Amino acid sequence: MTEANAEVSPPAAAQRLSGRTALVTGAGRGIGAAIATRLGREGAHVIAADIDAEPAEALVAELTQAGASAEAANVDIGSNESVAALADSVKQSHGECAIVVNCAAILDMTPMTGMALDHYRDVININQDGAIRVSLAFLPLIKAAKTGRRIVNIASIIGIRGARECIPYATAKGGVISFTRAAACDLGADGITVNAIAPGFIDTRMAHLPDGSGHEHQTDWFQDIYMKYGRILLGRPGNPDDIAGPAYFFCSDDARYVTGQVLLVDGGVSATF
Ligand SMILES: NC(=O)c1ccc[n+]([C@@H]2O[C@H](COP(=O)([O-])OP(=O)(O)OC[C@H]3O[C@@H](n4cnc5c(N)ncnc54)[C@H](O)[C@@H]3O)[C@@H](O)[C@H]2O)c1
Q1: Is residue 13 helix, strand or coil?
Q2: CA 156 to CA 88: how far, in whole Å?
Q3: Which pLDDT score is estimated for 210?
Q4: Which residue CA neighbors atom 28 of ligand 1 most closely?
């Protein structure tokens, strides 16, 4: 295994986000949990929000036991009422929220033939509108933060490249990328940076096959196209920590002059064909 492929732990935390409140949606598991953990290790007070309350609470218990500051929150990013209630509760308890990481989403595999427009709209409502809904509701709280104002959106390479049976998911993720650039234009004057990460193939529950028979990374399809032909240049699917580091970067002071950008974190898939 080359050094680039070695599994490495994130560097020792230096409390560089100390004094900042960070909302992470979809923090119950997978990439969101890794981002919440990283931001907590860096000293942020983390609000780990998820539609699934139990794993978010379990994560918060782990984080607080490890000395981080965190709380769990129950939210459905597809619901105006639920998101408004969360923003209201954060306003009451913290008065501000410097960092918003929009990570929650659902995977959807629907072939175009037979796709119902209502189904498409349901996926857009969560995967695209969810990020916009949360950002709108939290904007006054981001503006209320004195420093380190950030929005980070988790998009996908499927928002940039095509993939089969993915019209609702791909369109939503493309929308998240466009939202990122357009919001960066509107919010630059307020010192709010807005950036996106487009992950490639990451080893989370989202990558499990819909019929529960296994994992897409173990299928012949994946092994042939992505591994045999070297389409993942770094030779392995990603793991959630591979995304948490870049997400932390966008949240950090080091990224203070970076806005409207989309960083592809995909082991090199998009660099080749
Ligand atoms: N895993 C991948 O290969 C991959 C690739 C590209 C992009 N992404 C993106 O990364 C993000 C995280 O994905 P993951 O792989 O960790 O997925 P995951 O399914 O493991 O986790 C998603 C989390 O979001 C939560 N969630 C779902 N709907 C919600 C809602 N309406 N309101 C609040 N929370 C909700 C789930 O409960 C879950 O905890 C998503 O935006 C996904 O589209 C993942």
Answers
A1: coil
A2: 30
A3: 77
A4: 105
| DSSP strand pairing (69-74 vs 99-102) | unpaired
Which of 265, 235, 270 has the alpha carbon at shortest distance from 250?
265
Q: How far is the C-alpha of 192 from the C-alpha of 182, rounded, in Å?
A: 12
Check if the beta carbon of residue 183 is closer than 8 Å to that of residue 194: yes
Ligand 1 binding pocket includes 53 (Cβ within 6 Å): no
Mutate to test the pocket of ligand 1, among 135, 171, 202 (most ligand atoms within 8 A of CB): 202
What local confidence, expressed as pLDDT, does residue 226 receive?
86
**Is the pLDDT score of 11 beyond 90?**
no
Question: Cα–Cα–Cα angle for 211, 37, 213, nearest 5°?
Answer: 10
- Average per-residue pLDDT for the chain: 94
Residue 73 Cβ contacting ligand 1 at under 6 Å:
no
User: For ligand 1, is residue 159 a contact (CB within 6 Å)?
Assistant: no
What domains are there in the chain, each with its CATH number? 14-207+239-271 (3.40.50.720)
What pLDDT shows up at residue 213? 83
Q: Which residue carries 């950008």 as its tokens?
A: 261
To the nearest 10°, report the CA torsion of 5, 6, 7, 9. Answer: -120
- Read off the tokens for 174: 């493309």
Q: Which residue has the higher pLDDT, 170 or 211?
A: 170
For the annotated catalytic residues, the residue numbers are: 169
- Does 6 score more than 80 pLDDT? no
What does the block give as tokens for 231? 């389409």
Q: Supply the pLDDT for residue 8.
A: 53
- Provide the whole-model pTM: 0.96
Tell me, in angstroms, the distance from the centre of ligand 1 to residue 87's CA.
20
